[in-house]
Amino acid sequence: MTRTFGGIRAVIIDLDGTMLDTAHDFRVAVNRMRDELGLAHLTLATIISFVGKGTENLIRRVLAVDYAPEAAALHYDAALASYQSHYLSINGDHTEHYPDVREGLQALKDKGLRLACVTNKPIAFAEPLLEKTGLRDFFDIVYGGDSLPKKKPDPAPLLQVCADFNLTPSQVLAIGDSANDAQAARAAGCPVLIVPYGYNHGEAVQNIDSDGIVPTLLAAANLIFTKN
After folding, report:
1. Does residue 228 register a pLDDT over 60?
2. Reported pTM
3. Out of 14, 16, 21, 211, which one is annotated catalytic?
4. Mean pLDDT value of segment 148-176
5. 14 among known catalytic residues
6. 3-state SS string over the chain?
């Protein structure tokens, strides 16, 4: 049984695979980039297994399907530029909210909690996507994968949010969909919940070291008890 949480003052929430199903945006942008390189399209499942550790890692994994390391390095800059251009052109067009995301965010706000979105997605992609999907106004802070010198699974972005909110890590709950989120939270000293429907590199979320698995953000909100 998942525990309940008292004394929480803020929540850090991941983006892709936690709030938004962006799988088909990744598919379209990656395969348009591969078209330019004369490469065959990859399946959605293959692409999603590469998601979660930032754009640079995604492109390296995509190129490694076809190229040896030396050849992949030669194509990397052009592939990255192509992917970024295509992603910006379709950002959010094929994206859907996961169930109870808006309801969960509203429930967290209704409890008086401050919210931050911390994602490994570049900030130039993350901010417009949050705006387009109507979620931006829920968040006091948004950090992308390139907003700070380090990204998840490094704890630095989570610790920065704690500092921004002038809270201790134990007062800040993290919610994500992958081992990256849990590892960052554990290293920062934040409690962490995992949703089961996202992009955990093709691995079972039950194997993640977390404080529980919740079916939705609304379910997570219902586990938090604040002190007034």
Report:
1. no
2. 0.93
3. 14
4. 97
5. yes
6. CCCCEECCCEEEECCECCCEECHHHHHHHHHHHHHHCCCCCCCHHHHHHCCCCCHHHHHHHHHHCCCCHHHHHHHHHHHHHHHHHHHHHHCCCCCEECCCHHHHHHHHHHCCCEEEEECCCCHHHHHHHHHHCCCHHHCCEEECCCCCCCCCCCCHHHHHHHHHHCCCHHHEEEEECCHHHHHHHHHHCCCEEECCCCCCCCCCHHHCCCCCECCCHHHHHCCEECCC
